Amino acid sequence: MTPIPIPNAVSKYVIPVVGIAALGAVAYVGFQYLKKDEIPKVQKNPKYPSSQLSSVEATAIAERLYTAMATLGRPNDQEKTIIFNSLQNLNQNDFVKVYEAFGARQYSKFWRNIGDPFTSDDHSLLTWLSNELTAEDFAKISQIIPEAKRYQNAA
Questions:
Q1: Rounded to an integer, what is the distance from CA 49 to the centroid of its chain?
Q2: What is the pTM of this model?
């Protein structure tokens, strides 16, 4: 059998375009995979006493925050109350422990919820808070942990 000839336009234009698109897709997937480890560290404040929260307590607070924010759109008043009550008596070192317990969780800045694999990435607690809360509400978080100010305009 003789091979079927490929039209000149296909070999000249389509094959290189498909090759470049495939290379771009591989680069994008690689970038997304490597980017998942880039959760910023939040520093403890040596001026405050060490956190008295146990790992279980920090995890419970992190889960309470996640549950309040893992809804479509911004939190309603009840969910905001849960968020602020959860953070109310924490100093910066307590917050760091909760932040570490929260870790990186899937979040879509587009949908403002846990999202889907196409529009979401893993984000830290501060990113979740900065996108879920209004600027005024997030400013209150900045009083607990000064490093939160870096996230103020992330929304």
A1: 28
A2: 0.71
**Cα-based distances in Å from 140 to 123, 130, 148:** 20, 11, 10
| Nearest CA-CA partner of 100 in 137, 135, 140, 51 | 51
CB count, 10 Å around CB of 75? 20
Residue 122 has φ and ψ, to the nearest 5°, of -80, 130
Average pLDDT, consecutive stretches of 10 residues, N- to C-terminus, the chain (155 residues): 68 75 72 59 88 97 95 86 92 93 88 74 89 88 76 54
| 12: exposed, middle or buried (Cβ count in 10 Å: 0-12, 13-18, 19+) | exposed
| Residue 150 vs residues 32, 140, 146: alpha-carbon distances, Å | 23, 14, 8
Which of 67, 150, 134, 130 lies closest to 102 in space, CA to CA? 67
